[in-house]
Amino acid sequence: MKRLVLESWLLLIYFEFVMRFRGFKVLHEVVRNEKVRDASDPVLSSSTDLCHAVDLACVFYFRQVMCLQRSAATTLLLRRHGREGEMAIGAQLLPFKSHAWVEIKGAVVNDKPYMHDIYRVLERC
């Protein structure tokens, strides 16, 4: 688990750098272009364990982690460990709010399961 938390923490740093210096377009391309790797590890981590590792990395992160950064890191971690994670970005109109979360086969894995009821999905990658 320590290795997963460290990997998650490094992904959070990477996406902070991308968001700060390269922008949303590059972040979107990085997430969209990351392919699901073959799960060659004999001891597979469950998607719940992988999401928990990102949550722990957020606790130890030196700044507040925003939902887009967290969801991008979670998506890459899932894909690197053989899971088909998909980042969803949604918005609600009144009051205007936007949010990002991760799904596997349409089920929310790193947030509340009723995100579809609150936010209209604008993009998936």
Give the number of DSSP strands.
4
Shape: globular
- Largest sheet, spatial ordering of strands: 3-2-1-4
Q: Helix tally?
A: 5
Cα end-to-end separation: 26 Å
CA-atom Rg in angstroms: 14 Å
Total individual domains: 1
The helix-strand sequence is HHHHEEEHE
Helix content, binned percent: 40-55%
Which percent range describes the beta-strand content?
A: 15-25%
Largest sheet: 4 strands, antiparallel
Task: State the low-pLDDT regions, or none.
Answer: none
SS content category: alpha+beta
On the 0-100 scale, what is the average pLDDT?
92
Written account of the structure:
With 125 residues, the chain is an alpha+beta fold. The protein has one domain (2-124). It has helices at residues 2-21, 24-33, 47-60, 67-80, 115-118; strands spanning 85-92, 97-104, 107-108, 120-124. Helix 1 (2-21) crosses helix 3 (47-60). It is globular and about 45 Å long. The two termini are 26 Å apart.
Short structural summary:
The chain is an alpha+beta fold and 125 residues long. The protein has helices at residues 2-21, 24-33, 47-60, 67-80, 115-118, and strands at 85-92, 97-104, 107-108, 120-124. It has one domain (2-124).
Write a concise keyword list for the protein shown above.
alpha+beta, 5 helices, 18% strand, 125 residues, 50% helix
Write the layout of secondary structure elements.
Elements: H1 2-21, H2 24-33, H3 47-60, H4 67-80, E1 85-92, E2 97-104, E3 107-108, H5 115-118, E4 120-124
Antiparallel strand pairs: 1-2, 1-4, 2-3
